[in-house]
């Protein structure tokens, strides 16, 4: 097992699963943000029932299982066995849902069929060097297929590869994973440089106080 997988297993054990229902009483739903019942939903992907969609860094699979319930061929990939165990315990019987344990770039390079949309919610897009992941995603998207991802916006002045810490026991050093933070206009430029079209990046404001850090949402077409 890689250090990255061990770090994300540690993270998984500290994170609760999704609530049983949302504010509308739904048992499955899509959320691009880390705030409850906030922001846009599945419409950002521009896909319908029958579409083949991939979640990079699906975690406990709340979002990708929702797409399966909408009749999509829904595939989630994650490097963490602990995340996927929780995902299978809750959503494993969902028709149309496939879950794979793999590193995102390796998974894309081995995939044979193209996807109609590929997305990532605070997932592998944030934690993988975009110089490796953007070409791998584009290679596996159908023409006009969408890449959409969300993550925390950058801290002003802190751009490019950053260290992110995952706490372990009181007497242990934290695990370290890398993440890539850029301003919206830098994401748009990077996507264009990798051959994507219609790249758009914006920061969705947080819900009213006390939270103030919003959500960076980026989308583009192959
Ligand atoms: C912050 S969690 C977010 C999980 C989920 N998308 C959500 O919104 O709850 C990040 C997830 O990305 C996964 N991940 C990070 N880097 C990855 C990579 N290179 N390949 C596959 N999964 C990765 C981690 O294992 C973890 O489950």
Give a brief rundown of this model.
By secondary structure, the chain is of the alpha/beta class. The protein has helices spanning 3-14, 62-69, 81-91, 104-110, 130-140, 184-193, and strands at residues 52-56, 73-78, 97-101, 115-121, 141-151, 160-166, 175-181, 197-204, 215-221. The longest helix has 12 residues, at 3-14.
Assign the CATH superfamily: Vaccinia Virus protein VP39
Task: Note the main sheet.
Answer: 7 strands, mixed
Q: Rough shape? A: globular
Low-confidence stretches: none
What is the count of structural domains? 1
Number of helices: 6
Q: What is the CATH level 1 assignment?
A: Alpha Beta
Numbering strands along the chain, what is their spatial order in the largest sheet? 3-2-1-4-5-9-8
N-to-C span: 33 Å
Helical content (DSSP H or I, runs of 4+):
25-40%
Radius of gyration of CA atoms, rounded to a whole number: 17 Å
Question: Which architecture would the CATH scheme give at its second level?
Answer: 3-Layer(aba) Sandwich
Report the portion of residues in β strands: 25-35%
CATH domain topology: Rossmann fold
The kinds of small molecule bound in this structure are:
S-adenosylmethionine
Q: What's the overall average pLDDT, rounded?
A: 97
Number of separate strands: 9
Order of helices and strands: HEHEHEHEHEEEHEE
- Pairing-aware structural class of the strands and helices? alpha/beta
């Amino acid at each position: 097992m890689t250090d990255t997988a061990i770090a994300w297993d540690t993270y998984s054990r500290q994170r609760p699963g999704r609530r049983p229902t949302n504010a509308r009483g739904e048992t499955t739903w899509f959320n691009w943000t880390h705030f409850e019942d906030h922001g846009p939903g599945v419409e950002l992907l521009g896909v319908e029932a029958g579409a083949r969609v991939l979640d990079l860094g699906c975690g406990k699979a709340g979002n990708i299982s929702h797409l399966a319930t909408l009749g999509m061929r829904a595939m989630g990939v994650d490097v963490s066995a602990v995340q996927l165990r929780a995902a299978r315990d809750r959503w494993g019987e969902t028709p149309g849902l496939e879950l794979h344990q793999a590193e995102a770039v390796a998974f894309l390079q081995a995939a044979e069929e193209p996807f109609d949309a590929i997305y990532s919610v605070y997932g592998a897009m944030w934690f993988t060097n975009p110089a490796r992941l953007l070409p791998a995603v584009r290679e596996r998207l159908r023409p006009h297929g969408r890449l959409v991802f969300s993550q925390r916006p950058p801290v002003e002045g802190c751009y490019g590869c950053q260290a992110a810490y995952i706490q372990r026991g009181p007497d242990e050093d934290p695990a370290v994973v890398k993440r890539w933070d850029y301003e919206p206009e830098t994401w748009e430029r990077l996507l264009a440089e990798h051959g994507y079209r219609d790249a758009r990046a914006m920061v969705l404001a947080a819900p009213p106080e006390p939270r103030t850090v919003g959500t960076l949402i980026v989308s583009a077409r192959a």
